[in-house]
Amino acid sequence: MSADFESYEQDFAVLSAEITARIGKVPKLVGDEKKQMVANVEKQLEEARELLEQMELEVREIPPQSRGMYSSRMRSYKQEMGKLEADFKRSRIAYSDEVRNELLGDDGNSSENQRAHLLDNTERLERSSRRLEAGYQIAVETEQIGQEMLENLSHDREKIQRARERLRETDANLGKSSRILTGMLRR
User: Fold this and answer.
1) Which of 52, 65, 82, 106 has the maximum number of C-beta atoms within 10 A of its C-beta?
2) What whole-number distance in Å separates Cα of residue 31 and Cα of residue 42?
3) What pTM value is reported for the model?
4) Any idea where the T-SNARE coiled-coil homology domain is (predicted)?
């Protein structure tokens, strides 16, 4: 069974190398050549996904005692696949930016200025998000402290009420004692 898996591994390695090479060529091509290269990369990515599915099926068939090694290899292949897809997406974005610039007649500087502006805005947004998160954490901590204080005040109130009740009882007992002593003095 591991022979099939290793065969799939070799196929995946060759395919991922081809995809990487083609992804690198996408930004350098123009027109129909670029469209054709994008279509080819999409087909190869689909083939790579199918190979990963086959490899995953093979891993399920491997006995449990040796499955761990193959599972970790599968995770690394999936990560590599994710990287390939992200690289392809970036190259397609660059491709679509170039097509947009060609259609709109934009030059590269305005695109670079827009990207710099977007990066600045993204950084500001991230800083604001971090500040909001810190503020939220402080609010949560403050709420917890407030809850603890309310509980402490509630306990203190109960103690004061018990002490007041004892004082009333003591006052009542003192009143009785005073009446008894007054009665004894009269006799």
Assistant:
1) 52
2) 17
3) 0.48
4) 117-184
